[in-house]
Structure formats: C-alpha cells, structure tokens
Amino acid sequence: MNRYFFATLLLWLLSLLSATAQENPRYYVNKQAIDSLGVEYITIHASQQFLSDKVRVELEYGQLNKSLASSETRISDVNGREVVFNSLLEVLNLLARQGYEYVDSFIDPFSNDGKTLKFLLRKLK
Description:
Blueprint: H1 2-20, E1 28-29, E2 32-33, E3 41-48, E4 55-60, H2 88-97, E5 100-107, E6 117-123
Antiparallel strand pairs: 1-2, 3-4, 3-6, 5-6
C-alpha cells in the first residue's frame, strides 16, 4: 500500500513540475515569430503610451507596412495581443533573449519631429 502511495505521489510531483516549467515565451511581429524572422537586422522604435509610463514598440525588419504604427509593426504575444513594456530596457532584454544584440541607436531622418530615436539590432549567429 505504501509503495503505491509513494509511487503515485512521485508521479504527481513530476507532472506538477513539468507543467509549471517555464519555457522562453514566443513573441510575434506581423504574425511571425521574432526569433525566426530570417533577417539579420531589425530596428525598434519605442514610444510612450498616452498618459502612462508604459512603452509601445514598433519593430521593423523590412516588412511591407500598410499603415504607420499598425499591427504589422507592433510586438504581440502568442494570442495576438499587443505587448506593452515597462521600459526600453525590457524591450532590449526581450529581444536579446530572442537572439538579437544591440548595435547602435540613431535619429530617424524620416521622422516628422526630427528627434525620433530608433535602435538597430543584429541577429546573433
């Protein structure tokens, strides 16, 4: 009786541990996983959310955008919901986990205000 109880308890604990094991979550842009875009360089543009300290991010990798700041450029989760970040460093850390490294930052010459900052990242090989 004790053997069956301990065997059942051990199997239950193992299944509980495997169910709670966290894997690196996937993030998407334009319905494609960021870690498998197949491009070497990406740029990110972060803007502060209206009346909030949160940051919205647009990611460009050469995709055709139907409109500026559309769902094709925003980072989303596996359910298709836009991900809003606490800071720009959170974005850079997320993209580092997705296999990208920071290269440079620059002022976007095509922005209307002339002071929009973008970040260039490169896929690690």
